Amino acid sequence: MRQPWIIALLLTASLLGGCSVLQGSKLLAPESFGLTPVAPNIYVEAGADETVRGNLREAMDKAEEAIRLAYGGMNSRPIVCACITEECYEAFGGRGSVAKVYGNRILLSPRGLNWHFLAHEWSHAEMRSRLTFRAWWHLPNWFDEGVAVAISEAPEHSESHWQFLVASNIPRPSREELHTFKSLRQWLDAVHRYGDGNNIERKANNEPAISPVYSAAGHELRPWLAKVGSTGLLAFIAQLNDGGDFESAYSNLP
After folding, report:
1. Are 152 and 119 in contact (CB under 8 A)?
2. Final residue of a domain: which of 100, 130, 160?
C-alpha cells in the first residue's frame, strides 16, 4: 500500500482509537519491539515454537488463496505480526479484539492465529488497495466487514452461527439496521451494543460466544458474493472508483 494510504488510515483511525493507533504504529518496526521474522512478511513474538511458526506459514498461504479467489487476484501484500501472549497483543494496541489491521500491517492475537482471522484482516487491506481514497471513505463499514467475514469463513461468524442466534432468539441486527452501520463509529457502537466484543468474559463464565453483528454482515454478503463472483466484485469496485453511488452499485449488479 502506498505511503499516503498508510498516513491517511492512521490519521483517520487516530480520531477513533487514540493510543491504540499510536501503539499500533510500532508494527512499522516489529523487530524493535520483540517480534522476529519467520518467513517473508511474517513476524511472530519471540519465544514462539516451530509448531506456531509452521502454522503461521500455512495460514498465510491459505489466506492468500482465499483473497485471490474472492478478488480474482491480489494487489495487497500485508505484513503479518503475530502475538503468542495477550501482553504482546495489548502492547500493540489490540485490546478488545481478536485481530486488527493498520494499513498494510495485520496484528494477530493468540486467539486469532489461524487463516480465518488472517484472511479477514487481509480482505480489509485488499479492499483498501483497490479503492480510491474517496471510494474507500464512502464505503459502508458493514459492507467491508461483510466481505471480510464471507471470505474468511471463520466459524465464529458463520452461517451456522447466524442460525444459532436465530434459533436461540439472541438479539441481532435486522438487515435494515445493518445497513445503517456505515461509519466505523456506528459499526463499533453496534458491536458494543450487541455484545460481539464481550466473548472473553463469556468464555471465562463458560457461556457460548456470540457474534451477532459480524454474523449479520456475513449473512448479508455471502449470497451477494456467491451471485456476483469475483468478476462482479471487481465491477462493483470499479463503479465506486468512478464515483458511482454505493446503493445503486450494490443493488443493480446482475
Report:
1. yes
2. 130
